[in-house]
Task: structure prediction
Amino acid sequence: MSFLDRRTANVLLTILLFAVILTIGYIARAVIVIFAFSILFAYLIDPVVRFLQRHSLFFKDLRGPHIAEAYLAVLIFIGLSAYGLAPELLPRTDRLLKQMPALMDSLSTGDIAMVMGHDYGWDDAQALRLKSFLAQHAATIQGLIRAIERFASAAISGIVLVPILAIFFLSDGENLANELIGLVSTRETCEAARSLAAELNAMLQHYIRAKVILAGLSLIYCSAGMLVFGFPHALALGLLAGILEFIPVAGWMTAATAIVTVGVLTHSHWIWMAALLGVWRMLMDYWIAPRVMGHELEIHPLLAIFTLMVGGAIGGIVGIYLSVPLVAALRVVWRRFVLLAPHAERKPTQFLASASN
Result:
């Protein structure tokens, strides 16, 4: 009976190990995504924590109190924005949430067409045509409603878990990184691993900076447009649009829906505002965002667009959000190996030259 040689056995064990890791990663993909968003949220809050720690009179050597201060500042900011800029928004949101089940039922059955026809002065023929269209696509609408409910449930869970997990990365992230480096590297490769980790850390900081820039641009654009068209609570809605810019696809769609809905309910120039939002989305997705991301992460704008499209095709909203930092991380790793490869190739030559002398 013949046994496998040592080299073949090592290759098979390596392939088996990678297969097991990929299988575990696929099964636990939801958990991995939550941890990934927690890390990105920690990078978003970390500059605030560092600022508070640097300018604090007490506990400069401790991060825990300043993390609590940063979280408290975020909560106060959200509260002041909600109550100071839009005091009527929360009661309306509460009423909308209570009416949501009945609204969804009327949407799937088509009865909402009659209500809209009465509110907007449509004739009976127009209302019946819309009701017939909704009734014919009832199965599609119900499936879309169920998908929205699942997404909302997952989003609420993530909103609760991500800030909690980010506390651990904020308070002990450096020690976690050092332990991971010690786990995957040897004494000879430890310095190279630390240098690679430093580059990845800088890359993620630039990525978060790019997201903040894009959020600020959306806030300014939407607020200015709504102020021009006389929208109520323009600053609050602009702030909402800026915050939701951190969420790909679903974020800007939610912000646009909220802005247009407020415009319809308050009889503002919502059609013109919807047109401006459409123009802004085209500019943001195909001109502004690729260039900002490309500048911060040192990747070509066309590559950024391609990465977002591939990420969306593979992983949906999560793929869109994580595709750019993943490609940027792979670029850092690839560049590191490319830079180290020539040195590794020159060592044997240098050794032979010294031996011949």
Observations:
- Residues 191-340 form one domain.
- Confidence is low (pLDDT under 50) at residues 344-357.
- The radius of gyration is 26 Å.
